[in-house]
Design a protein that fits this description.
β4 and β5 form a beta hairpin. This protein folds into two domains: 229 residues, Malonyl-Coenzyme A Acyl Carrier Protein, domain 2 (3-Layer(aba) Sandwich), CATH 3.40.366; 62 residues, Malonyl-CoA ACP transacylase, ACP-binding (Alpha-Beta Plaits), CATH 3.30.70.250. The chain has a six-stranded mixed beta sheet with strand order 8-7-2-1-9-10, with helices on both faces. The chain has twelve helices and ten strands. The longest helix is centred in the first third of the chain and has 21 residues. The protein is an alpha/beta fold. 45% of the residues lie in helices and 16% in strands.
């Protein structure tokens, strides 16, 4: 039975998310390593006030994901494939062996700064549940302000990005069209849409200066939802996905088709776990935040043992 490690993106952040990581020497070592690279105490990035910054959020999510995955691997709980939602993709690339932690952390910091500075106010993202992509795209096309499809998390769970007035108009139309839920998210930038094309180009230039290796396990690409093993394809995905929708449901569907029957979500939260549980009842999905590290290790070993 194959195991997929999943890494959450922006919107999953919680105050004290780094402070509440499992007590494990590998996690402690990774947190110290991050502080050294950043030349700043990593625990200053997960306070309630710090998490108002896109940059701090992305750094905290990245470090939480990599440190937990490293601890799992140190205990013998190994992934067969990895994928990260949005900034979580950088953690996935590190755990897959395609990118060094130091380089990835610097890139995540730059990514957050570029995104934060691109639209410091007046823009954001929202979630719409209960409408499919075609119907929602039709409604967005009627809005006069810039609004775009951003994340395809499930067939009827989609996020949109753009100007706040445009988003508010789109949400009102979605609710009138029968959406079960339509609300603005805790994200202050219009991620994964053409408004961030210039950010994507700047990030691509920085990525060109970094060494990539062939991953030891497949990496699920955000932009085209393919299992990537080519280092250059992973480099491109990390750069270009900033300005393109995250095709998350297609990524997890691909992994399920490739044999994944245990999906393990790194901290914080359980957003990705819930999506998998709803989409693939035949698979098992576990949030390390909920289960704890020790249980996640035991379950992973047991599930992988069934293939032998």
């Amino acid at each position: 039975m194959s195991v997929a490690f999943l890494f959450p993106g922006q919107g999953s952040q919680q105050p004290d998310m780094l402070h509440e990581l499992p007590d494990h020497p590998v996690i402690t070592q990774t947190l110290e390593e991050a502080s050294t690279i950043l030349d700043k105490d990593i625990f200053t990035f997960d306070t309630d006030s710090a998490l108002s910054s896109t940059t701090a959020v992305q750094i905290a999510l990245f470090v939480a994901g990599v440190s937990t995955a490293r601890a799992l691997k140190a205990e013998g709980a190994m992934p067969d494939m990895v994928a990260g939602h949005s900034v979580g993709a950088f953690a996935a690339a590190v755990v897959a062996g395609a990118l060094d932690f130091r380089d990835a952390l610097s890139l995540v910091k730059l990514r957050g700064e570029l995104m934060e500075n691109a639209f410091p106010q007046g823009y954001g993202m929202a979630a719409v549940i209960g409408l499919d992509e075609r119907r929602l795209a039709s409604l967005i096309g009627q809005v006069g302000e810039p609004v775009f499809i951003a994340n395809l998390n499930a067939p009827d769970q989609i996020t949109i990005a753009g100007s706040i007035p445009g988003i508010e108009a789109a949400l009102a139309m979605a609710s009138a069209a029968g959406a079960h839920r339509a609300e603005i998210l805790r994200v202050s930038v219009p991620s994964h849409c053409p408004l961030l094309q210039h950010v994507s180009y700047q990030l691509a230039r920085a990525l060109d200066e970094v060494h990539f290796r062939e991953p030891v396990v497949p990496y699920g690409g955000n932009r085209r939802a393919r299992a990537l093993r080519d280092p250059e394809a992973i480099r491109e995905d990390l750069a270009m996905s900033v300005a393109h929708p995250v095709r998350w449901h297609e990524v997890t569907t691909l992994f399920f088709e490739l044999g994944a029957r245990l999906f393990l979500e790194m901290p914080p939260g359980h957003v990705l776990t819930d999506l998998v549980a709803a989409a693939f009842p035949a698979a098992r999905s576990i949030s390390v935040t909920k289960s704890g590290l020790d249980s996640a290790v035991i379950i992973t070993r047991r599930e992988k043992g069934r293939t032998r």
